[in-house]
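USER:
Working in pairs, take the chain set out below, taking as long as you need, and write a paragraph about the fold.
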Amino acid sequence: MAGTWQVRASSPGYGDIQTLDFDTKGGGQHSVAFLQAGCDASGGCEAVTDGWLAEPLAQNRWRLTSETDESDMELWVIWIDDGYRTAAIGSPDSDLAFILDRKPKGGADRITAAREVLAFNGYNMAAFVTR
């Protein structure tokens, strides 16, 4: 999962998140950065990064702890294609999920597969925000 992933679809409430960057440093120090567009009432927008420390729980499962307010959540890889181009990730309680891809466009067949896998695993795909 290391590297930058483009958010292609997300659970409601996470529509501003554009990318997730997984940093798997040596020595067990992992982190995930959520990059989102923050806009004010006058229409001015800027990129805002929200950093989380990622404690590995098992292969492709992490407990994320916010670097700013100590809130935490679990994030699991539900599915990833053989070429590591598209992934479906989410929380085990189905409240949060993302469809990620290495590229911002293309791969419609893989995006469809990710949607189907998330739906099969109990995620509400009707409410998903697609980019």
